[in-house]
Design goal:
- This protein starts with a helix and ends with a helix.
- The protein is of the alpha+beta class.
- The strands form five sheets. An eight-stranded antiparallel β-sheet has the order 3-10-6-7-8-5-4-9. A six-stranded mixed β-barrel has the order 11-12-18-13-17-16.
- Strand 7 and strand 8 form a beta hairpin.
């Protein structure tokens, strides 16, 4: 009991100990701030990388891309695999119905699915059970099993016989077309997959000949894109929708533009009031740019208002053209209807869904940020842009490449949170960019149904089941996917012309994430070394306290206090100072981190010192998220520093002899 009493008494009476406590608090606060900001940087980079690429990226090493991507995704995830042949039905000897066909490589691949880890024979065996789906006579699903003969004859045997499937007097039996087989997943850990096209182009604005901006272009499928990434979280118009598309409701686009315009109006009023209070002459450049943005908002609203009037005539024209094609109308009639539809599209001012674009929120000249970090949109949904794409895919002579040009309507914008992405990226419908980048399928002139080159994509992005999947596990899944692709490529040689890499998102972004991780480690180590001053400070102060309390130590030992008891007093004293300093420093550090952006803005406005430039750094704001596990480690380190600083003085106090201590002057 005396140990606790003396520890608390020294804590209240020795004012000098408070300086040690403040030293610990300052070191802890400094570490909390540094670790939180650096971790925030890294987390934003990681979130943006995963949001753009998913967990795993499959990519060819050349410009040709990846073919047969839909078939590979079907095998990878499991589900329906389209068979490229027809099945003829006949009654078997045992009364069952047997569908037979000469199997093509695609069908054989679908049947010969096995474990990619088996090195003896990758083409293992047929699935024991499968489901065949076909459209003939609305048969629906047939459950049964497949067999493959030595003559490559594919046979499907239904589980139960059905005499009505095969006509009594038929030489060939019933023919099944559009057949699909239900396969189990090849890599069970893969939850979702989506093809992705990546290329380069030049963005222009109609009527503004001076604007030419090089851009990176992504071809994506919505809403499937949202299954593998966080793309939907950054959408301006559709961010709160349940599904995402390149054809959002016009009413929703108008609503978002009106909200954004009102926000710009409030910023304009604030800026004018500020300049009036400062007695500045004229409005200045920012109010002028804000008024210009509001003008473009008004133009976008007028375009969308006009487009609403043409929605019903456009639907009627599309239906009329569809009926004409279905009934086999004359070419002249179809050309007339197509011309009518194109006229209605031009008059509406809104291009069809396959001719629309989602901009990155940060493209130069199309948006800007104020000094407070507020994003101001200039071109909003409804406006049109012109995109020039130089199709590098499959080109043998880059000097002869001519651009493909397409006029597009803006329907949304996306903010990933990383300006290096948002300032260069825009997004097109997958099929549209596939056509513009010359990656569509090509067919034989003599046999139109025979594919010469399959349709291709640049990458395939995968999402793995579960949250916070470790890098080690992701790399193992990558190896499984890579082995599966090798099997797939044996059956489909045109699926790729070069080696295919399968990488985790971290490997894909190693050149970006790696240096930031190194910088974080160096900065944390540097500040941790600086924080050792708290250990030295506690040591000096406690040594002085022990020297001053030599007589008290002698009295304690004279009345029977043990060496351990005396040492415990000062060790507990040091741990208490470390703990209290850590608590004060943690509270101060967390408050500072949470308010770091307002503090930065106040410093910039008051003293003109702004170390954070929103035009230079990759993010709109300084990261202000505190990692609880990091804070716990810092607090434990502070308590350890208190114990370490008090260790030597405690040992000295414990080793004092009572007689010598009592004689100390």
């Amino acid at each position: 009991m005396y140990k606790l009493f003396l520890c608390l008494r020294y804590l209240r009476s020795r004012i000098i100990a408070y300086f040690a406590m403040m030293g610990v608090a300052l070191c802890v606060a400094m570490l909390v701030i540094v670790v939180s900001v650096m971790n925030g940087f890294l987390e934003k980079i990681e979130t943006a990388a995963k949001g753009l690429f998913g967990d795993i990226v499959i990519e060819g090493s050349g410009s040709y891309g990846l073919g047969r991507y839909d078939e590979f995704i079907a095998v990878l995830k499991g589900g329906e695999f389209p068979l490229q042949t027809q099945f003829k039905a006949a009654s078997g000897d045992d009364g069952t119905v047997v569908f037979t066909a000469n199997a093509r490589p695609a069908d054989m691949w679908a049947m010969r699915r096995g474990s990619p880890d088996d090195k003896r024979d990758r083409k293992i065996s047929l699935p024991g059970k499968a489901t065949l789906r076909a459209d003939a006579k609305k048969l629906g699903e047939l459950s049964g099993r497949f067999e493959l003969s030595e003559a490559n004859e594919l046979r499907f045997l239904p589980d139960s016989a059905s005499a009505s499937l095969v006509p009594q007097n038929s030489g060939t039996g019933l023919i099944l077309t559009d057949c699909r087989v239900e396969l189990p997943p090849a890599v069970a850990q893969v939850e979702a997959a989506s093809p992705f096209i990546f290329t380069y182009g030049e963005l222009r604005i109609p009527g503004q000949t001076h604007y030419r901006n090089p851009v990176q272009i992504a071809g994506i499928r919505l809403p499937q894109r949202a299954e593998v990434s966080d793309f939907e979280d950054g959408l301006f118009v559709q961010g709160e929708q349940a599904t995402w598309t390149f054809d959002p409701p016009i009413a929703l686009m108008r609503k978002r533009i009106e909200e954004d315009r009102r926000n710009i109006g409030r910023i304009l009023e604030r800026e004018i009031a500020r300049r009036n209070s400062e007695g500045a002459a004229g409005e200045g450049p920012l109010p002028e740019r804000l008024r210009n943005a509001m003008y473009f908002h008004d133009q976008g609203l007028l375009i969308l208002q006009n487009a609403e009037r043409f929605q019903k005539p456009l639907r009627d024209a599309v239906e009329e053209l569809r009926q004409a094609e279905k009934s086999g109308a004359a070419e002249a009639r179809k050309e007339q209807l197509e011309a009518k539809l194109e006229t209605l599209v031009e008059r509406s001012g809104l291009r069809p869904p396959d001719q629309r674009v989602i901009l990155g929120l940060g493209l130069p000249g199309l948006s800007f940020r104020t000094e407070k970090g507020e994003t101001i949109r200039i071109l909003v949904p409804g406006h049109q842009v012109v995109l020039y794409i130089w199709p590098l895919s499959g080109s043998d002579d880059p000097t002869r490449i001519t651009p493909n040009v397409r006029r597009l309507t803006i329907v949304d914008d996306n903010k990933s949170g990383v300006s290096s992405i948002d300032s260069r990226m825009l997004y097109l419908p997958f099929d549209t960019l596939q056509e513009l980048n010359n990656m569509s399928a090509t067919y034989s002139a003599g046999t139109p149904s025979e594919i010469v080159e399959p349709a291709r994509c640049s990458q395939i992005h995968l999402k793995v089941r579960g949250q916070r999947i470790g890098e080690k596990r992701l790399r193992k899944i990558c190896r499984d996917v890579e082995n599966l692709w090798r099997d797939f490529h044996e059956w489909f040689p045109k699926a790729s012309r070069t080696d295919v890499s399968v990488q985790t998102w971290r490997q894909r972004q190693a050149s970006v994430v790696g240096p930031i991780e190194t910088q974080r480690t160096l900065v944390v180590v540097m500040f941790a070394v600086i924080s050792l001053v708290s250990v030295v400070l506690i040591f000096v102060i406690f040594y002085m306290i022990v020297v001053q309390k030599t007589k008290d130590i002698g009295v304690l030992k004279a009345i029977g206090a043990s060496d351990g008891g005396v040492a415990w007093i000062f060790l507990a004293y040091g741990a208490t100072i470390g703990f209290l300093g850590a608590i004060l420093g943690t509270i101060g550090g967390i408050l500072f981190v949470h308010n770091i952006n307002p503090i930065h803005d106040w410093m910039a406005e008051t003293i003109g010192f702004a170390p954070w430039s929103r035009d230079t750094f990759m993010f709109d704001e300084i990261p202000n998220t505190v990692n609880p596990s990091a804070v716990i480690m810092i607090v434990l380190g502070a308590i350890g520093a208190g114990l370490l600083g008090a260790m030597v003085p405690s040992i000295r106090a414990a080793r004092m002899q009572p007689v010598e201590a009592l004689r100390y002057e």
